[in-house]
Each structure stands twice: as structure tokens, then as C-alpha cells.
Amino acid sequence: MVRVHEPEAPELGQGSTYTDTMSASNPMETLLKQFQSFKPPTLQGTENSVDCENWLEDIEQLFESLDYTDYRRVRLVIHQLHGLAKSWWIASKRPFENQVLYRKDKGAEFASLKQGHLNIEEYVAKFTSLLKFSPHIAASDEAQADQFINSLNPDVFTLVNAGRPNNFVDALNRAKGAEAGLLRL
Questions:
Q1: Distant-in-sequence, close-in-space partners of 149: CB < 8 Å, separation ≥ 6
Q2: What range defines the domain where residue 124 resides?
């Protein structure tokens, strides 16, 4: 049977936040202690499928409340696996770790993406293919437009930014027009 515990918030001083409690010396240890203070449910691996689904829903709800990254979620949930569940994790963790690292790498690639030698069509294809790895940018059309514009080559940036479009489609159309104009010069 899954042991489900109701999360309890750790007590913090006036004006403190959970991130304030993170130790600079060993942030993962501090994060684990913080996470454990919520008394997250554990999984033995001997539960029936309904109990496993309930465990997963409880863990996901806790993680969403704490707004942890995927990387942190994986690192923390491992501590909630015991018995057969822990054995299963040890046997199959490499693909999961690789997937998280891949998403993290792609997010970093998106954050550092510049137009460089790419034409606008190539740049927008790369931009949109990497956008899904940065959900905080993907959530807002204005944020997408800003990221797109700020990563353009300086000459295209100047022409596009002059009208300062506030949505991605407008920014893309202006970038195409600016590139076409520059190619005619």
C-alpha cells in the first residue's frame, strides 16, 4: 500500500521564502531536506496500479506546488522509491536522466540561440524547434517575440526593432521584410 502523507509546509521566519532556505554550501542537500519536510509519499513497487497512479498524482501535485524543475523533480523523487521501485529505478535510470539532461541542454541552446549565419527561414525553424524546451518563453507571445528579436543579427534587429512588434508573427514578418531589404542592397 502507498503511504500517503499530507504535505505540511515547513515553518519559515517572517519574510522568508523556501528559496531563502537554500544553503550555498550544499544546495541539493538543503533542497532534499526542504522536500522531505513536506512528508512526500513513498512507493514500494508492490502496490497495485491504482495505488501507483495515486502516488504519482500526489507527487506531481506536490512538485507543481513547489514549482521544481524537471531535473530537481527526478533527483528528489528517487528518494521516495523503496524496495522493488528502487530496484526498477536503478535498472532503468539512464534513459530518464539522459532525457532530463537533453531537455536542459536544449533549453540552454535556446537561451543562447543567435541568428548568426542563418537566414530568417532557417533561424525561425531552429527557434521554433527549440522553443518547447523553454516553457517560460513559450507561454507568452510577447516573450517569444522579444526572444526572437533580441537574437537577430544586429542589422536585422535594428530594422525589426524600430517598429517594436509585440507578437511573434509580427516580429517574424518584419524580420523577413528586413532581410529581403538588406539583400537588395
A1: 157, 160, 161, 165, 171, 175
A2: 113-184
